[in-house]
Amino acid sequence: MTAPAQPPATPDLLYSQDEEDLRSAVRALLADRADAPTVIVATESATPYDQGLWEALATGIGAAGLLVPEKLGGQGASHREAAVVLEELGRTVAPAPYLTSSVVATETLLALAGTEGALQAGDGGPAAALLAELASGARTAVLAVPFATPPGGAQAALATLDGTVQGIADAAVADVLLVPTAEGLYAVGATAPGVAVEPLVPLDLTRPLATLTLSGATGTPLAGPDASATAVRRGLLAGAGLLASEQLGIAEWCLAETVRYTRERHQFNRPVGSFQALKHRMAQLWLEVVSARAAARNAADALATGSPDAPLAVAVAQAYCSGVAVHAAEECVQLHGGIGMTWEHPAHLYLKRAKADSIAYGTAGRHREAVAELAELPAP
């Protein structure tokens, strides 16, 4: 007799005490090292990333190794904890290569480092060795694909280690480039001969983009074509799923800051936030943020538990959260009135980050199509 099918586990959308403790540590660090004036000054400099901030976040708190097993020197945590870090980075739009290095590149390498048994035996290959360096914060890596590449549309842009890839996030500050080609995945040093990384001028100045040009470059082979394609998809899926948590952090800050400002700003001898029209706008935004939190947490939990529904959860989160972040940032700028249009106020940083994130790892429309395919629904 066939055993009855077990009902799917209910996702845990609540934050654990450990996650809240991690949030407190990251928030305190960012309040000290990445407040709004500091971030604005960084965007005007030639080095947007504060190396001291990255070292404190990566090694002091240990955030760089959250997804890496303890056998490789990581924290052995999960995507839930990494999502908390990204929420706080979104709240401050702090320039840090966390999403690209500690999530996407790390997850790509984890797919290649072997099984848990291989890791325990110390036989993870060059991918495991690089993972250990990323977990310690000694090096950073990026996956050399355009920032707009969706998880389901990842294809090798190059046939060999020759050619150009445009729009790579954080390539200008990475130590290692993970380059997928038709021959497989290679780890290429950013300063190796035949490698040229040309910074671009992005909309979001807190996350630099660059063009990578390879000309006769050499690299360490990490995987063949099939394993490489699987690993890249896994990395991009994790990136898209946890990007929703960054977008949640953006939306939460914009809502909180807008409510605070409209309480303090007076017009006609009363707080502007007391006007009914503004109350309705902020109430609607609050509802959207609460829904975005549920979607982002569901995606993080699905990735953490290895749920077979993780691709669907990620697609739902990205289809919804990207629009909420943009809407929250737009409302923040508009409801701050004239001050929201100034360079000195950080509202424009959040709007630019939200707009840039809305096309990162696939647009909302692309993810809605994925939802329809994965849920076997009629296309919208």
UniProtKB/TrEMBL annotation:
Pfam families linked: Acyl-CoA_dh_1, Acyl-CoA_dh_N
E.C. no: 1.-.-.-
Class in the EC hierarchy, top level: oxidoreductase
Cofactors demanded by this protein: FAD
One GO MF term: oxidoreductase activity
Keywords per UniProt: FAD, Flavoprotein, Oxidoreductase
InterPro entries with a match to the protein in the record: AcylCo_DH-like_C, AcylCo_DH/oxidase_C, AcylCoA_DH/ox_N, AcylCoA_DH/ox_N_sf, AcylCoA_DH/oxidase_NM_dom_sf
Ranges where the Acyl-CoA dehydrogenase/oxidase C-terminal domain occurs: 233-373
Residues in Acyl-CoA dehydrogenase/oxidase N-terminal domain copies: 16-116
Family according to the record: Belongs to the acyl-CoA dehydrogenase family.
Name of the protein in its database record: Acyl-CoA dehydrogenase family protein
Organism: Streptomyces stephensoniae
